[in-house]
Amino acid sequence: MKKNKFLRLSLFTVIALLLLASCTTYNDTPVIEVTYNSTLSEDPFDGRLLVLISKDNSKEPRFQINDTNDSGIVIGKNVSQWESGQIEIFNSSTEAYPIESLADLETGTYFMQALLHKYETFNLANGHQVKLPMDQGEGQHWNTSPKNIYSKPLKINYKKGTPIKLNITEEISPIEPVQDTEYIKHIKIKSELLSEFWGRPIYLQANVLVPEGFDKEAKTHYPLMVFHGHFPKTIGGFRTTPPTAAKEDSIFNPRFGITGYKYIQEKEAYDFYTQWTSKDFPRFLVIEIQHQNPYYDDSYAVNSANLGPYGDAITYELIPHIEKLFNGVGAGWGRFLYGGSTGGWEALAVQVFYPKEYNGCFAACPDPIDFRAYTLVDIYKDKNAYYKEGDFKKTLRPGMRDGKGHIKSQLIDMNRREYILGDNSRSGDQWDIWQAVYSPVGENGYPKPIWDKLTGEIDHEVANYWKENYDLRYIMERDWDKIGKDLEGKVNIYCGDMDNYYLNNAVVLTEAFLEKTTDPYYGGEVDYGNGAEHCWNGDQENPNYISRLRYNTMYLNKIKERLKKTAPKKHRLKNWGI
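Predicted structure:
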């Protein structure tokens, strides 16, 4: 009896060991092996190596990674000093999006592609050394960034247990600079402030729309309109020739639910040109800033522990340089800010942080301006960003909805996609740039996470840092006795009450504070678009697909009223009627 019992135990032990070995082998089994061609470089690479997988080849897999139900699969890992001929292995346990890991990839036919998002080494002024992707003129997009290397899409009949081999042979080509025209100029300066922070030369650029009749030797001065937003290759929405697109076409625009949108865009751009050059149109400068950086397509136009002093560099280096070149007013009363979404947050933030340097902001559908409503998360009270939790149940928080309130994506999935594209805030995407701008520097030199990317657990110490430094509603309320007089009449905010990213929630909280202000009363405007989605900008007469094309003209009447109150009597403005 004892002998049989011993045999049974031994048999169970052997089976357990075999199962353990099987699991270990399974998790360590190479599923995808990636190499790159030696002709691409003799030097090794650092970066984020991605494998992209799609079901169809209507476009390359690298262009099919997103937050929708139609997203392809991305699998990512960091590589260091990766040499040609060296095999990088993706195991079945390698984390992925939207599946959990490579083990979840089912047998089937796929198109696969590998891409290396290259990192460079930065020795920062704060003493940290970090590896980050340097923008190459594309506006910080991993799938189009010049010098990144990739493999051609390969059709694969995938079967679990059979390794796939991908060889990188291609490099993304450089981007040609946009040339100047009669009305559009492209200005580039080296920022001493940013260069000192990053430990290498860093440049700021701006696209400038020059007024009709501009003459450097004339006495006319021009107000400066800073149109904040994402990376602009050149001035958009300005066309010197009539539309050439078909007035009616069958190309359906899913965002706006219409056809013929290309014609509408071209017509609006040409109409703006005809206004711009007409005899009585107010003369002013428009600038769109290029401040792409290793974390995102722009800097959010403020000083940041992780990105450096972009706010000061823009306000005290770039803008005075442009005003000097093009006869700008050169003083706070002659500068205005507007933009939508990221640009809406920037417009308000710049006005708040530099209250005397600008004379008014028009912030449309701004990114969260009150972190009690960081979309649907209260970073101060909530324990977890991804779930609302009770004693017996927890519910996923949505991250995006359509205009009817239908959920399109969850916060947990949006953040996981970013995490797979790049850890340490290196995805180049939305949640990571908020974290990079607002967070203190972590011990590893990268932005300290506001929450765990995989679990959603919030770090309230980081949240308090955000509050004191970047919660715009809180900062205005905290400092109103100091900055209120300089903000009087300058704060204007607009948002649709069905904003796709729930940005209206923070606007409502901010409005509640503004309406309670005294000594002085804020004296601006907060308005909502009934049933309007992202990015409604204050136009109650026209649909969003029209008003989004009119930023450079839609606030002019309000700006004129502001100038009547604040411009000196002996101004040199032209066609403003003040």
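Summary: The first strand starts at residue 30 and ends at 36.
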